[in-house]
Amino acid sequence: MWFYNQETKKIRISRDFQLPQMQGEVQTCQDLDNLPTAVMEHENHEVPINTHEAVPHSQTKEAAIQIEGNQLELTVKSKRQPTQHLGYMITWHKDGSLGLSQSDLIRKILYDNDMSDSKGGKTPCNGKFYTEIDDEGEIIAITAYQRAIGSLNYLAQHTQPDIMFTINQLLRYSIKPTIKHWTAIKHPMRYLKATINLSLNFSKCTNKTLLEGWADADYANDRTDRKSITGIRTSGYRNLISWLSKKPTVVAQSTTEAEFIAMNICAKKLRWMSFLLMKMGIEDSKPTLYNNTSGAMTISKQATLNPNTKNIEIRFQYLRDIVLKRQLTIVEVGTDNMLADVLTKPLGL
Asked: pTM value?
């Protein structure tokens, strides 16, 4: 089996495949125009090619197979950039940046739910978006609701962090959705219709800090159990890497504790990313964690906790330990600069 990697411009051959009539250290093959059809017609990062389509031997030097033991490697020339990969739409810009979106999936979701001709919305949800279990409401088709919310959740997890909070709220009612919840689920669909041409942008950056994280919390957000909402965002060279919006399993007893829970989750994620980069041989300056609550920032710099804050001692000690070891820097930012705010509360105009 052959695999073509568009990024490295190389064809990889599995170790257990023995190419016949290959001898010596370097063999040449046909020029690029005569490569197997599967390579030329697909733009995925790795395209499987049947072994019977193996590139035959010739004397041209447009492509060459490097043989090292049982490993074979074919280097080819290609000027084409991939525009699709596993459902992602990739847009390449002249400045070297690229945009990532799933516009085809959005169109499919709108079509499947009869929203293709709907009017676009300005926000993922209205400013007073607080859903709750509606025991007296008429239950709608559960399968249709679950299919719609599942597709929207896939979008939120991959390329649409702006709808993450809304979708997480609506996911809670997948077992017993009512007309009220079905009406609410149409709001993010209208928002996606209005923003279908927008994409996540990844650009070159000279920022010296490789890893950064933003941690935010909305205290006692849930009206049913009064649990808070935690929002986490991490980035590398200011390019978005991951995002998270979830309801913790514990009930925070203060705004400070809710923020500490968020900071603790973000710190652990940044430490894991640092270890991963070290394994990859990438030198990393210590990550920076941003938070916008002065109370949590003040406590994080103290040597001990007072009796009123001992309930967060374990999270406090973990943060204090990695800060003292200079494995993490915690910085306070204003609310206007809190990039994780969109993951903790609805946005309304």
From this structure: 0.72
